Amino acid sequence: MAYSDKTRRLFAGEIEAIKEKGLYKEKRFIWSPQDAEIEVEFPEGSSREKVLNFCANNYLGLSSHPDVIKAAHDGLEERGYGMSSVRFICGTQDIHRELQDKVSEFLGMEDTLLFPSCMDANAGVFEAILDAEDVIIADRLIHASLVDGIRLCSAGYDTFKHMDMKHLRKKLELHSDKRQRLIVTDGVFSMDGDLCPLDEMCDLADEYDAMVLVDDSHATGFIGKKGRGVHEHFNVIDRIDLITTTFGKALGGASGGCVSGRRELVELCRQKARPYLFSNSLAPVIVSATIRVIELLSQTTERRDKLEANTKYFREGITKAGLSVREGATPIVPVMLYNAKLANDMARDMYAEGIYVIGFFFPVVPAGAARIRVQLSAAHEKEHIDKCVAAFRKVGEKYGILGLDKKGIIEKYGT
Fold it and tell me: Which pTM was predicted?
């Protein structure tokens, strides 16, 4: 047989090498609804522990909100469990149209198309709207799903240095002969938590007759005065051509995503995007719940405001504790450790202190940029944040990194 003992030993050896480096990603199981406090089995087979969750994308604390759960139940009762079809055959219900209209209104876009996930939206959008006469010019730190989608497209591909508008200008000049130029960026970059300067980017797009696509998955619902996203934050709502985003983070945390933007571009996705044409429709329970989420966000900014306050409180506390963190204002707060094993070991010790966080290292982040990515939520209370900061202080003291900058940590642990 093809999968011989020799082949098995080869792959098993690769797994053992990962374990020996202290970089093995152990299985973890949550035995409770997603919330600020969860019950976790880690490692597999161990007793369950109640811990505070500081690594979920549940930014607005809506994953277990009673109104959202009720809406999901209502969707199940009124529209069934699943569609058993793709959208263009018999998979489109009235509520799919309703959600698309609500998303368009909320984001300030002309039209919206639903996808099973934002990864599917990113996989489908480029091939649908561009061809070999065009070029994509992307920030070098865009999300992996954008990179994968770009690879499926016949358009040319170039990059510019992270958030470097001078370098972007040079690339736009270089590709001035192309039929269409599409600038691609994250709104909030998921590993660093920094905001793309969309106002400056849109100025360049206007100057060089380019389009702008923003993946706003880590911003939709809570960035901007009304939580509409980074384009609202920079007051460029009417200057963005396409937004891809997810319903699987702040907007309830289940799954689903969309492409939202110029009517003609969205229609091309409806006609040509393969993940839309060949994937089952978004389940009615998710559609109904997401409609309710957008209604909640349109009524009040209370949760968005609490998240902003929690973020400020944590950033101040963790900095005073002596940890090295990236500056910023978003609820993504990377505690920089630079060494992969150190990040993994500290995350394990944090769990022993009742704080659930994860170490990130290559290939998820660049080599030598290992970290623990802390994510705040409107579900967190101040006492939760105080406990998290105290745990970081205790564990950081154990590893002797309090007060050390990047150079000091690297000298002590290497990269």
Answer: 0.94
